[in-house]
Fold these 4 entries.
Entry 1:
Amino acid sequence: MRYSHKVHIYRRGSQLRFTLVTSILAVGLLLLFVRLSNVSLGTLFVDLLASTYRVVIAYLISLVISVLMALIVTRNRTFEDFLLPVLDVLQSFPSFAILPIAILWFGASDVTAILFLVITILWPVLFNVVAGVKNMQVLFASRGFPGNCHRFDYRLG
């Protein structure tokens, strides 16, 4: 099926220029920081790589948990009625409240940082996946998709 619409990331040239200028400014400020501090450029990039590793691992864990929870929640109306309010309450707890407990259990390690990031990333991804699945069901039902659209079949193929 062909789609007639095109995706435009930058609608105007000014948006592209703004992105390039801010990227160059960020690299310039990073190099200025290295120049003014006692940190070597190699140490800085090793630390940036370690932080990027933690964020990617936490995002992947959050993505798997969120998609599984969203599919469970949207699969059955009873689960949705029970779990969504519970998840909404859990979302309201600040991520920093878990940090002291995690430090006591795991120490100041990568596990603590990844756990903190997972808790922070989990909720927006979860609720957006739930909204996406619900909108997908409504879209399929409005387009005359055959079958029982309120219990969407998640199998691929």
Note: The chain has one domain: 40-151.
Entry 2:
Amino acid sequence: MIIGSICNIAMGLTLPFLGLALSLTLFAMMIEDLEEMREAVNAYVLYFIYIAIVCFFGNFFSKLSFMFVGENITLNMRKETYFKILSKHIGWHDNRENASGILTGVLAKDAAALNGASLEGLSIIIESIAAISAGLVAGFLLSW
């Protein structure tokens, strides 16, 4: 989960750098000398490529690490629920609401819903906080 959080922070940091690279590229296009402009724009285009590489690997490793954490949470949740069901008194299983089909559905649905609700939201929150923080810092530094 630490690797996923670091990758989400890197993904959030790419957005302000993307804006900076875009503005530098636009300013480089205002250079009068064509050859000098081409060299400057080519240098800034490399920044876009670097940012795309960081986005690709950051997104991949973020999704991968949060997927492993989510699968472990789901597996542990299902194991605990299954062992609790097995430790119930035998008469508990005779009730209609405790039928085997209903309990199997509970094992399948509830644990997966917990996985999707907790980790996907967490990764978006981490990425958003990093993007907002980096944008504010860059805005304050560049405006003074």
Note: Residues 10 and 132 are 12 Å apart (CA to CA).
Entry 3:
Amino acid sequence: MSVYILKRIAAMMPTLLGVTIAVFLLLKLLPGTVVEQMLGSEGDEEAAEALRQFFGLDRPLHEQYLSWLKDIIVGDFGVSWRTGQEILPTLLEAFAVTGELAVFAVLVSAMIGIPLGLVAALRPYGILDHLLRIFSLAGVSVPVFFQGTVLIVLFSLFSPWKPPVGRDLLARVIWGSQASLGISVSAMLLALLVGSTAGLLSGYFGGYLDMVSGRIVDVLYSFPSQILGIFVAGILGPGIFNVILAIAIVFTPVFFRTMRSGVIKEKEREYVEAARSLGLGHRRIMFVHILRNSMIPVTVQFTVGLAVAIQLEAALGFLGLGVQPPAASWGSILNDGVKYIMTAPWISIMPGLFMVLAVFTFNLLGDGIRDWLDPHSEH
């Protein structure tokens, strides 16, 4: 057992190293430096150069990375230039609060979800089971940031409702759906094309190609989807194409793994061996025979992932990294309504409802496709 654990730890080291490199490079690619934040755009050049030397920003990139990695390993996170306090104790203090809230939330969720799941399992595919599945799908269809904001408002006292703006909200929401759905579908199609092709090649040929591509995917998987999307969109800057690219990068590893696992299983089947014995080439075997039989889980993943992509696009738009004014998307409209959340909450609720409906629809569609394509399902 100990040997197995040591092997797993050793196998994790390349991935952990790749994660540190990715985090370091992402931080370097983000616009602006600590020197510019401290001095502003009109700072003295001599003072700026002195600060660069103080922070080591004048050294080569590889030296900066090695110094940064050494400090991380020994637990030296430095001192915040804003507060003058050590960063590690600040992080640990915040982690304690976050951990307490997370544990309490999980316990409450388990106390509610487990009994409901047991009740639904007693009569599968009954009325109660269908109602609880719809309820759970509705829950995962609501973006977290929108759900939290709305629940906070619902649990608080409302101020008198007064319309702060005179624009037609319904027209903006409907018009914004073109951008939100268009970006999400385009990003998922791009991720499907790149990820599935890479997964097909990696799973079929294996070897060094599979090892290298697998480690790259492991590094990307190490980042939460929203954090990775925000990083990429922050580096590329706001804009429709950049948001599409950011969301596609987030979902490419998902399609890679889904396709790769299916190809590895399919390439060992008898029909593939028969095709090889007939002298068919690798390209024909991959793209005509194996790909066709590996597309079912990828199709389901596309439908389910589209619901998550809509939420990610809304999150980026909410942060100002998506569609820019005067154009509108669901996320940007949500952001517009934040300042009026206590006086006119419908400004945020309206695009949120459209988003929930779209996400719920794709979740329900993906669930239905999965049940329909599952050979073991009786319904």
Note: The domain at 169-373 is CATH 1.10.3720.10 (MetI-like fold).
Entry 4:
Amino acid sequence: MGLRFGTMVARSLGRTAPGFPGGVLEEGHPIGGSPRDVSVEQNTSSIFGLGLSGAIGILFVQTSTVTVANTTTESTLVGDGVGTVSLARNFFATGTTLRLRAAGVFTTKAAPVGTLRLKVKKGSTVLMDTGVVTPLTDVDGGGWVIRSLISARSSTLVIDNGVFENSLDVKFMLNLSEVTINTTVEDFDLTVQWGTADVANSLSCTNLTLEKLVMPV
């Protein structure tokens, strides 16, 4: 049986996004010109609380809530925001690391509720997958959090590990081998798919950030 959801709101991540001074995300990509552009602030932080520190470049901060309900179609949870989730051609090099953090709320129908599945993707390539999750029934106002750490072993090979949790349940999404990615321009994505379509089967993403971790110089 898959992971069972609890009904309490997920714990706060306890982190805030840094400010947005001028800068560039990648060579040839200026920042600060449009609502879809974002700057980079040099800062230090830990990665999943493991004490691995480096400068953080915020690529994207979501400013709208995306809700997926009453459908069995795999749907994006990424909405409008400041910055971009479009990764430039040849974005990854050996050591390039991205961190995704997202959170929100969900509800479920009476039994049988069906299943739930979330995926972290680059274009159509799946980097991390919760697998089939079995939620509790009749949940109203449950919370969820997903954290994902993607590190490049080369320009075409990445490995992604992370955690999917709410306040009662934790599921580690562990990969032991690399995933082959394209070097073309592609969007970074977080998707959800319900196994049963019902108006009460609803998951909303209220917060999402994508960061590029950069070694200090």
Note: Residues 1-55 have pLDDT under 50 and may be disordered.
